[in-house]
């Protein structure tokens, strides 16, 4: 029984060292060292202009800087407005047109993170003022 416990403890330590090494190879947390990233703002924040929504589950975000890196990478895509929830490790991505899964994966990978899951939401039904009457 003691050998199992020691083996488990050793495995946890090895995993921790491996993750720390991976983080340091990227230049520290979020690969940025001590430089604070500038958050890019989306000009059009009218939710009705973004009928397509997807929730991305992202691995590797550990701090606010990481969240800003991911949000910036997604907001650089044409017709996208993204908001990252660091606590949930997710990004809510609103889109004017649906983007291919590969484009979303590439944006996340390009920022240095891993996209674990994509949850597509039903398109937002936008009603015109005439339909509301």
Your description of this structure?
- This protein starts with a helix and ends with a helix.
- It has a four-stranded antiparallel sheet with strand order 2-3-1-4, with helices on one face.
- It has 133 residues and is an alpha+beta fold.
- The mean pLDDT is 84.
- It has helices spanning 2-25, 64-75, 101-110, 129-132; strands at residues 52-59, 80-85, 90-95, 114-120.
- It contains four helices and four strands.
- It has two domains: 1-35; 37-124, Alpha-Beta Plaits (2-Layer Sandwich).
Brief write-up:
The protein is of the alpha+beta class.
- Helix-strand category: alpha+beta
Strand order of the largest sheet: 2-3-1-4
**Helix and strand succession?**
HEHEEHEH
Please tell me what the overall shape is: elongated
Unreliable runs, pLDDT <50, ≥5 residues? Answer: none
What is the strand content?
Answer: 15-25%
Q: What is the averaged pLDDT score?
A: 84
Q: How many helices in DSSP terms?
A: 4
Q: Give the number of DSSP strands.
A: 4
List keywords for this structure.
4 helices; 4-stranded antiparallel sheet; 20% strand; elongated; Alpha-Beta Plaits
How is this fold's topology laid out?
Elements: H1 2-25, E1 52-59, H2 64-75, E2 80-85, E3 90-95, H3 101-110, E4 114-120, H4 129-132
Antiparallel strand pairs: 1-3, 1-4, 2-3
